[in-house]
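Q: I'm building a small set of examples for a reading group on sequence design. Run inverse folding on the following structure and report the sequence directly after it, with nothing in between.
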């Protein structure tokens, strides 16, 4: 383990109150050097060994194995804030479920690379390295309090012993990153009134953006178009990090390169760290064979591209692969982009001066953390599965979660459908736990209206937009459904709370008595139920095709809602209009300042955070921020109509987001501590 990673990033957190806390970040890495076992040694081909199984480093369903992480916790922690297990694996098939356990607690499964294929045959089969990041839930964090976690991998749980070897996998590295605190009270310092706000924080997240250093390098076999590179296979990039203070700690980084691919064939290029920065000053690499120069450091990322036109492609850099502190001291860092990894014709070209490095750091500079720098922090994208396969509904998915059958577990409720016909509401009962929901197709069904499936008329990009709510005073859960034509229908429960059966539905209306009309936002009604003005009664926040966000204040009671009028959310004195339209709002305090904010999707598949700059009972807004996954702005492919739902999926303290889209899948982004991630500013 690199001790420089285990540094104190926050000192005297609450000086004014006399309560002291130190926050530490420590990462423990296991590979062939630090552990041995069956981690693939550096430089070895994953398929080294006797075919077809390539043992011993390829492991199969009857070759389960494990290792132990022992992060050095400087003091007995009073709280572990978060922990993330990152496992780098080769040839992870989507159909092969490789389960990971920590001290006997299920942590998740390995994920396959985006270009992994399972077609048999030498021409159709393609494998790749991919890093899976698993956030530990509260039970696993509790087990980690002793500073040790035993990891066990159940290989190919979809084809368990003794069925035979069906899906194999090779590991190169496992890293456990832990953020924890210890605290104590100073008896010589008077304690603050607990009702008063706490003192200032010394920790600050900073983001830096760098362009490559302009150096003149020899160009070998330049294919044309003004491209500068070293050799046919390599391009070198240097970045000047002198603006980052030496004492700061790098917590995330991303690399963007300007690339095109003449053939359109998917190509992988690998990004490597290089420790020798002297060439930046001399403008010359000491090359005996410039077309075949290896980097002397570890691989830190893979760029996959198949685009025929020039475009920027961004990847996350594996920041635990080497010690960044030396780069901060000598002020430079060098990367070599090589490729293609997968052996395809090297037609993709890279502009040497068209790249970008973004680095996020933690500092203990004594500056106050402003809530304006804090927004929803999300980890990597996951896809919710049933029976080990991605859940895919018909048409456009609209997910949410609610305890449907009153067993204490949150279940998955998905609106589906689109284009035409009748849309439905699909329910998956949770057969897992509070902190780790699991689903099976055999425990799924459609919501019922009397003796048939509950339906909504579908049109275009929306089938049914359901939200489960206790609407009236009978203590039975009901359903509100936003509809494609812009109206909202209320389906009241006619049976029991744990076995809901709904009526045929009635339209919600707005206006005073005798002047009522159906609520109608024009088209594509997407709704959230929230007490907007803090009067103790449920109100409606509704998005629509035009990108506006409509507010319906309840002038009745909480159990007999009555909406007299409609208003529009304002942004700097004008109607707020979500870029690209099809607003889909959900409401929650996302920056921890005690005021409700808005998270919305849009036509383009993005998530937009609108910070409340007013008060909690009279929200006001001024601009938006794109929400990121692992610090890269979420932007689902195509124009998928992102429809988010905020929840606490794994029962920790950080809000998670379910996102529905045009692919019919349920996208999940797990919330993490702001010390782990910072979204694009």
């Amino acid at each position: 383990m690199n001790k420089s990673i285990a540094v104190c990033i926050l000192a005297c957190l609450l000086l004014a109150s006399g309560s002291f806390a130190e926050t530490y970040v420590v990462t423990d890495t296991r590979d062939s050097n630090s552990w041995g076992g069956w981690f693939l040694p550096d430089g070895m081909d994953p398929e080294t060994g006797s075919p077809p199984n390539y043992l011993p480093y390829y492991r199969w369903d009857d070759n389960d194995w494990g290792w132990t992480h022992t992060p050095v916790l400087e003091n007995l922690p009073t709280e572990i804030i978060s922990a993330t297990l990152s496992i780098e694996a080769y040839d992870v098939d989507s159909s092969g479920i490789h389960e990971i356990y920590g001290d006997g607690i299920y942590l998740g499964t390995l994920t396959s690379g985006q270009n992994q294929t399972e077609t048999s045959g030498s021409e159709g089969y393609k494998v790749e390295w991919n890093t899976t990041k698993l956030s530990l839930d509260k039970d696993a964090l509790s087990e980690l309090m002793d500073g040790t976690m035993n990891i066990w991998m159940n290989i190919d749980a979809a084809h368990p012993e003794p069925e035979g070897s069906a899906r194999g996998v090779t590991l190169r590295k496992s890293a456990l990153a832990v953020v924890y605190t210890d605290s104590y009270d100073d008896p010589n310092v008077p304690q603050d009134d607990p009702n008063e706000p706490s003192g200032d924080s010394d920790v600050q997240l900073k983001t830096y953006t760098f362009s490559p250093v302009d150096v003149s390098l020899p160009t070998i076999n330049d294919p044309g178009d003004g491209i500068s590179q070293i050799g046919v296979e390599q391009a070198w990039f240097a970045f000047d990090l002198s603006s980052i203070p030496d004492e700061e700690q790098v917590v995330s980084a991303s690399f963007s390169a300007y690339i095109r691919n003449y053939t359109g064939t998917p190509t992988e290029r690998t990004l490597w760290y290089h420790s020798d920065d002297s060439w930046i000053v001399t403008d010359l690499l000491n090359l005996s064979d410039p077309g075949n120069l290896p980097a002397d450091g570890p691989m830190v990322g893979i760029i996959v591209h198949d685009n025929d036109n020039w475009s920027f492609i961004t990847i996350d850099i594996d920041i635990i692969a080497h010690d960044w502190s030396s780069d901060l001291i000598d002020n430079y860092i060098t990367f070599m982009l090589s490729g293609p990894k997968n052996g395809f014709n090297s037609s993709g070209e890279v502009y040497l001066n068209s790249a970008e490095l973004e680095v996020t750091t933690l500092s203990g500079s004594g500056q106050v953390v402003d809530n304006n720098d804090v927004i929803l922090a999300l980890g990597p994208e996951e896809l919710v599965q049933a029976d080990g396969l991605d859940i895919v509904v018909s048409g456009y998915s609209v997910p949410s979660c609610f305890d449907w059958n009153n067993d204490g577990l949150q279940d998955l409720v998905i609106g589906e459908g689109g284009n035409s016909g009748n849309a439905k509401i699909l329910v998956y009962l949770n057969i897992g736990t509070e902190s780790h929901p699991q689903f099976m197709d055999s425990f799924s069904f459609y919501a019922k209206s009397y003796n048939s499936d509950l339906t909504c008329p579908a049109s275009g990009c929306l089938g049914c937009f359901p939200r489960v709510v206790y609407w009236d005073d009978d203590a039975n859960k009901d359903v509100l459904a936003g509809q494609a034509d812009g109206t909202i229908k209320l389906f009241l429960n006619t049976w029991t709370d744990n076995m809901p059966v709904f009526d045929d539905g009635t339209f919600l209306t707005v206006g005073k008595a005798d002047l009522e009309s159906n609520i109608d936002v024009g088209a594509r009604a997407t709704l959230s139920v929230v007490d907007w003005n803090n009067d103790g009664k449920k109100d409606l926040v509704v998005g629509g095709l035009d990108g506006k966000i409509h507010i319906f204040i309840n002038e009745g009671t909480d159990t007999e809602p009555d909406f007299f009028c409609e208003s529009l959310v304002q942004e700097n004195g004008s109607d707020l209009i979500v870029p690209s339209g099809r607003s889909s709002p959900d409401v929650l305090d996302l920056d921890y300042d005690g005021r409700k904010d808005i998270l919305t999707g849009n036509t383009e598949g993005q998530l937009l955070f609108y910070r409340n700059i007013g008060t909690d009972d009279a929200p006001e807004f001024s601009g938006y921020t794109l929400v990121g996954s692992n610090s890269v702005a979420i932007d689902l492919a195509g124009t998928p109509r992102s429809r988010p739902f905020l929840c606490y999926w794994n029962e920790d303290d950080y809000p998670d987001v379910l996102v529905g889209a045009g692919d019919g899948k349920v996208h999940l982004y797990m919330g993490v501590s702001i010390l782990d991630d910072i979204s694009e500013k």
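The helical segments are 138-143, 279-282, 325-330.
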